[in-house]
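Lay summary. Proteins are chains of building blocks that fold into shapes, and those shapes determine what they do. In this project we predict the shape from the chain. Here is one chain we studied, written as its sequence of building blocks.
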Amino acid sequence: MKRQISKIELTAGAVLALLLVVVFPALNAAGVVSNFTISLWGKYLCYGMLAISVDLLWGFTGLLSLGQALFFSLGGYMLGMYLMLMIGKLGQYHSDLPDFMVFLGHTFLPSFWRPFQSFGFAVGMVFLLPGLLALIFGFLAFRSRIKGVYFSILTQALTYGAALMFFRNDITMGGNNGFTDFKFILGYNLRHPATQRTLYICTALLLALIYVGCRWLTTTKFGLVQRAIRDSENRVLFSGYAAANFKLFVFVASAIIASLAGALYVPQVGIINPSEMWPDKSLEAVVWVAVGGRGTLVGPILGAVAVNALKSWATNVFPDEWLIVLGVLFILSVLFMPSGIYGLPAQIRGYLTSKKRNEENDAGAASGETNPDPVVETPAQRSKTA
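And here is the predicted shape, written in a compact code that computers can read:
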């Protein structure tokens, strides 16, 4: 049964990847799919990567992190610094400095900004900075045996503190407005449809690679230890495994995945600011995972796309009630769809099978047809019969 499910999942994943990576961009190039739609779906797929990073922690390791939005935003800021320097004199103030620096009275580029004129350095920092932050924070937290709700509160506090820091103008990271008005990436015009289409294809390919990599990881011995930590960490410790090292590796890996998602999000959406770091963004990602199906990797992607598509519609129809809708959706998912969208077909099949079995039992009882208990002969009766 396990092998059959794997084949079905592999086939469905290959078909879906073909549609997202090849068919959808081809339809956009032919004018069937609008440029706005391709950009919107690029944002959805970035959210899908963020949801996978949450699921890898929460669904497979039992670590509910409320700080994934921080790593997502840091990846966006790292690439955003490169994009801001590529604007050049085409900004509002026609200066080589970013517009917000000119507005704040800066006369020269800060030293830590200068290496970001290199695209390679910016990409390297997308990996390095969030990974290093996750390594330091995770090492201190897991060495102290912090887990459960305390771990969630600490990650939320870390995210909130970072957001407050990035809101300050004196750290020269754009303050409240953040980075925007991007124009070029590697010499290509970001507003050109071909560039946006290329960014979308890169996002879809990276999402597929991340999914395949995480799926492979969770099927190895490492993945078994992951789930064992989720179910009973004390048993893992008594078995001689260093649970803290496993959790630290997963935490760093999930931070890098979230950072990559943020790096691809920024050039497609066109803005990054500290509001993306607020704890409610991490809470939204948790809702995506719960709605899609925790511990499935596929479900979080479905949940991220479905919830954000609903958000795009709901915020236009009744914007003030969106948070209420999101809360109700989370409650309904927990109460009535414990396996999320991914597990809904199996849940429906189980319900229909149970209902059919009950109807057959009721019909048999009504007709008087009962299965009598089997007659068991004693040894004496068997010898008498013989």
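What the prediction tells us: Residues 2-276 form one domain.
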